[in-house]
Amino acid sequence: MTLSADQARRERAFIRRAGEGPLWQFLRGFIKHPVMVGSVIPTSKVVIDKMLAPVDWTNCKLFVEYGPGVGTFTQHVLDRLAPDATLLTIDTNPDFTDYLNGKFTDSRLQAVTGSAANVRKIMADRGFDAADYILSGLPFSTLPAGVGPRIAEQTEAALRPGGAFLVYQFSPKVRDFIAPHFERIDKGFEWINIPPATLFWAWKD
């Protein structure tokens, strides 16, 4: 059966809208960069709320997120962030960066394509000396050799004293990467997520 011009136009519009949606972007990102995306399913709101609960939002001026993907945490962070604060997201996948820049119009958001291993330079290039909190869902155990330890080292150096590295993972092995740089590490666990998530809050004394 041959589609009419109007039917064909509606079908193209439907496909275009599906391709612009967050789930499709997330799946596409997972397919293109499987070792850099922790899960094929976005994080649950229960994990998000628990992960962000310890943050002192009143005194947070710079919040950094590694691997924001399609912005599962982004709106939740912006909802809590002070009017004069900044959310800096860093992702190696330019598709995710473009998606965030198109989806969010909040001037407090700065979405950057780059590596978390270069967080200090990325911050310095934008006029920031230190971050109050850094959030990561990167799958440390599957990152290329040497990248995980460097990210942990650079993260500790990028944080202000009293700041924290917030990490949600599906493997507890991430603690092996962050323990050499943080003496105080609080741990949690959340079943209401696919898969269940292990949570860490590593504090810089």
Structure commentary:
With 205 residues, the protein is an alpha/beta fold. It has one domain: Rossmann fold (3-Layer(aba) Sandwich). Helix content is 37%, strand content 23%. The protein has eight helices and seven strands. It has a seven-stranded mixed β-sheet, with helices on both faces. The N and C termini lie far apart (69 Å).
Task: List the keywords.
Rossmann fold; 7 strands; 8 helices
**What shape does the CA trace take?**
globular
Question: Would you tell me which CATH topology applies?
Answer: Rossmann fold
Low-confidence stretches: 11-27, 29-40
Structural class given helices, strands, pairing? alpha/beta
Kindly provide the radius of gyration, computed on alpha-carbon positions and rounded to a whole number of angstroms.
18 Å
According to CATH, what is the class? Answer: Alpha Beta
Domains, number: 1
Contiguous helical run count: 8
Q: Give the N-terminus to C-terminus distance in angstroms.
A: 69 Å
Give the oligomeric state of the chains in this entry, treating copies of one chain as homo and distinct chains as hetero: single chain
Largest sheet: 7 strands, mixed
CATH superfamily: Vaccinia Virus protein VP39
